[in-house]
Amino acid sequence: MMGRSHLIIGTGVSLSALQLMGMQVTAPAVTVALIGSLLPDIDEPNSLLVSKALPSSLIRLLQTVLLPAAVFVYFYVQAKPWNLLLAILIGLVSFLPSRSLRKVLMFAIGLGLVFYGHAFAPWNLIAGSLLMLSTTLTHRGLTHTLYGTAVWTGLLYTTTQQQSPEIWVAGGSAYAIHLLADSLTNRGIRPLPPLKLRIRANLMSTGTKHGAIVENVCVMLTLILAWIAFSPLFL
Ligand SMILES: [Zn+2]
For a Cys staple, 128 with which of 31, 88, 110, 219, CB 3.0–4.6 Å? Predict the structure, then answer.
């Protein structure tokens, strides 16, 4: 399913549910619902979340900067032959396809968070490690399981325990709805590995004409639900 549909369905359904349950739809709840609806696809470098956080322009800039950086390293790093090896390595990275370069960048940001993000302790360690880990995962792997849902919801729960419950309910349900939406596709999800159990409604495959119709129907249903939940506020 496309990121745009995930964003609308995940956020729309979770916030409508919040409203229907009589909970407050606060700005932090909306924020975590938006993130939660896209977060499972962090294991896919070309997904909406990752490509918005690390846009193509940034990747192109990185590619442009890396070549002069390689030359600089070659001439200014004194330790031979490491300067040559390092320069070749940096040069090679600049020629990686943007998908792989995004992974390299995610890994570097994760590493940076772990080592330099002390101000956010201990969350720098958790977020940094998760970011590095996610670059090694195959798409629709660990992030598309009940374990992934539990970790994300648990993180929200423990960090926002002092505040109202809207935040973890909105974030957790938006994440779970992403998995439900993916289970409509022909590929489905495996919610409890290593168990072979696969949830797969086989209604659509992403990127096809038929798939787009199914996605649009889900989006329409979400908008109707949102109307039912929120229209009494305005009438
Ligand atoms: Zn997904």
Answer: 110
